[in-house]
Write a structure and sequence with these properties.
The complex is a heterodimer. Chain A is an alpha+beta fold. Chain A has 19 helices and 21 strands. Chain A has four domains: about 5-110, Sulfite Reductase Hemoprotein, domain 2 (Alpha-Beta Complex); about 135-290, Sulfite Reductase Hemoprotein, domain 1; about 305-400, Sulfite Reductase Hemoprotein, domain 2; about 415-555, Sulfite Reductase Hemoprotein, domain 1. In chain A, the strands form four sheets. In chain A, strands 16, 17, 18, 19, 20 and 21 form a six-stranded mixed β-sheet that branches. A five-stranded antiparallel β-sheet of chain A has the order 1-2-5-4-13. Chain B is an alpha+beta fold. Chain B has one domain (about 1-90). Chain B has three helices and five strands, in the order E-E-E-H-E-E-H-H. The longest helix of chain B has 12 residues, at about 35-45. Chain B is globular and about 40 Å long. The chains are: A alpha+beta, B alpha+beta. Chains A and B meet through helix 14 of A and helix 2 and helix 3 of B.
Amino acid sequence: MYRYDEFDAALVRERVEEFRDQVERRASGALTEDQFKPLRLMNGVYLQLHAYMLRVAVPYGTMNGAQMRKLAHIARTYDKGYGHFTTRTNIQFNWPALTDLPAILEDLAEVEMHAIQTSGNCIRNTTTDVFAGAADDELEDPRPWCEVIRQWSTIHPEFSFLPRKFKIAVVASKTDRAAIRTHDVGLQIVKSEDGGTAFRVFVGGGQGRLPHIAQEIAPAVPGHELLAYLTAIIRAWNLLGRRDNIHKARIKILVASLGIDAFREEVDRHFATLSQEALQVPAEELARIQAYFAPPAFADLPRQSAAFDRAVLADPDFARFSRNNVRRHKQAGYASVIVSLKPLDGVPGDITDAQMEVVADLAQRYSFDEVRAAYEQNLVLPHVRLDDTPALWRELMAAGLATPNADLVTDIIACPGLDYCSLANARSIPVAQALSKRLADLDWQEKVGQVRINMSGCINACGHHHVGHIGVLGVDRKGEEYYQITVGGSPDERAALGEIVGRSLPADEVAPAIQRALDRYLEIRTEGERFIDTVRRLGADPFRDAIYAFEFADA
Amino acid sequence: MKLITANRLSDGRVIYVGEDASVVEDIASAALFDGDDADAALIAAASRPGTFVNPYLVEVTGHTPSGRDRLKETIRSAGPTVGNSLRFQESA
């Protein structure tokens, strides 16, 4: 994986010292909260309901064992023994003291991590396919390009005070495993006519109060023009985007109001004025970055693994884990293993310090010292020998990390909600837990198959409820928590926003209503049809009827 | 009645104005104010920025939050209702 050069290292060290000074001045009273707030936000520090919250960047979701151990150390030393992985593949600590923050950032810098640009109106952490470098359908590993974007966008002078935040995601396959069309800019690596790397560019996606699916603005921007094209897009928005209304400041609003064709003309106009040479990544620099992402030293193995096959036959629990949490790998004899952070009755995305230590150890022993954070709030060990999966599974089980529910209905994406977040209107975690318990039967979950439930505690949509196959949005009704349900959302290459099925439900009705909708799906699906495909075929009506069926039962 | 809450500057924890302008963490120990007294106490808290970050008034019945944000204020006073912070408290 990428290693800091002297510029990266110096920049992060300088930022630690700068923030240490800012914290000291805040603690002494020399800075007011209003003066300090924009400074802390530039370093990922929020003030939430109960405490300060620190969001640490995990660039494109890739970590090594030493980094995971450092995160465990921070959780143990400065927090309450856990961290929370987010839908931006970052990790949040919920309880650090203000006065400990400089020490935490210093610890992070030791392992080439930081919290720069994890909040505020700037270009945020670039996300990508969690199986990058492992998936058998990718054209190339997208992470070197993510790293190029990271370097270009870090403390970019023109883009440090944007109208709002700006999020970029990159995939390198037709199958979209990074929800690129929900991003301000989504990039899909394609082949240019001359066989080189090019980018299909989508713009103007986003969730929140006014959700939009990104639209295609360019079919194939050559790799050497990528940064110039991104510059043109963000410059056009930076100049024309609304700064008078926070709810209308994102690029999605500008693209929707101008129309994609007029916005494209704006971008093209800026693009023509840019110095292509200055914005081109030098070939040797690109090669240097790409070298960090070279495939690890895979062994030459047969495609089949006798040890794996034996374990599948011998142990039904391992067989279930292998069906649900083990993914195909481009290298024969290897697999990617999903480490579910969605245990029964758990908090989606939470992981304890002890579990982080275990994951660090397993990454080092079984996965070439790599672990990934998935936007679905799980972890992935990307490069595991099939031969090793039974032993790995046993160790994950011992640590409570082997829930075999990846992509099943209890693999719920949820924001922290009103239990932590000062923006939330309603709690997310207890509703996710109620679903987790009610839908726990793994045989039933496997029968239902792939269904994504997404839950947000407010309209800001950190839990991506708009694009959940089933979305749950917490709303406040005169001081009471209610939940609005959507169906038919999809985050992938057939991205769609869910349809609101009707009026919101009280908290204790959500899990039963969703179970009824899923039971209805089992009745009406055709052979092999996934939930989302049934919704696409029949619309929301059958599910609406099931969700509100209790009203008829009560009548 | 009203009480005054804020986050503490040093660690962000939820605090309240107690009797004699003391700083308390337990909502049950918060001082209750009425009418103009509440506004005056809020101004006094805001004048102590080394302790109180963004102080504001909370409507209460007894010491129980009762205004529109009563759920949020109840969670602020008692901590997260679920999750790993509770596990931490139990083991501490």
